[in-house]
């Protein structure tokens, strides 16, 4: 759900909270909260986690679980959002285009050992292994 269209006199966060309450009453149990995407005239202040504040507001004021998006690129950032109750789930899009193994890397970066790499990808888990001259044959 787009929490705001970032256009003067357009859709806003107050309306989003009200819609979320109504959707919860109809049985919805989670809302993916984002913003923008509805007007070419939108002036969106983009920055790390810039849409999370909307997910947090919908979560608190509508008492419904939320997912958040928007320049969530670092595992510690994602963990902070979850631990502080700003959202219930992290939804990744562009970051997974940049780094398809982000969830596995996040598990490792945060000290977990729950994720396992498919056997055929085990060698992709570490970038610190040097290239050997024997690998550079013509």
Automatic annotation (TrEMBL):
Checking PANTHER family in the record gives: NADPH DEHYDROGENASE C23G7.10C-RELATED (PTHR43303:SF4)
Residues annotated as domain NADH:flavin oxidoreductase/NADH oxidase N-terminal: 2-110
Q: Whose protein is this, by species?
A: Pseudomonas meliae
* SUPFAM superfamilies reported for this sequence: FMN-linked oxidoreductases
Molecular functions (GO terms): FMN binding; NADP binding; NADPH dehydrogenase activity
> InterPro entries per the record?
Aldolase_TIM, OxRdtase_FMN_N, YqjM-like
Q: Is the keyword Ribonucleoprotein in the record?
A: no
- Name the UniProt record assigns to this protein: Xenobiotic reductase
């Amino acid at each position: 759900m787009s929490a705001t269209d970032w256009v003067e006199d357009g859709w806003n966060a107050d309306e989003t909270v009200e819609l979320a309450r109504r959707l919860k009453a109809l049985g919805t149990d989670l809302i993916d909260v984002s913003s923008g995407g509805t007007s070419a005239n939108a002036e969106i202040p983009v920055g790390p986690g810039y849409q999370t504040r909307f997910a947090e507001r919908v979560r608190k004021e509508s008492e419904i679980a939320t997912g958040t998006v928007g320049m969530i690129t670092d595992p510690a950032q994602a963990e902070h959002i979850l631990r502080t109750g700003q959202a219930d789930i992290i939804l990744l899009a562009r970051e997974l285009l940049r780094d398809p193994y982000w969830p596995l890397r996040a598990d490792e970066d945060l000290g977990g050992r729950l994720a396992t790499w498919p056997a055929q990808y085990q060698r992709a888990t570490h970038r610190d292994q040097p290239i050997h001259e024997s690998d550079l044959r013509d």
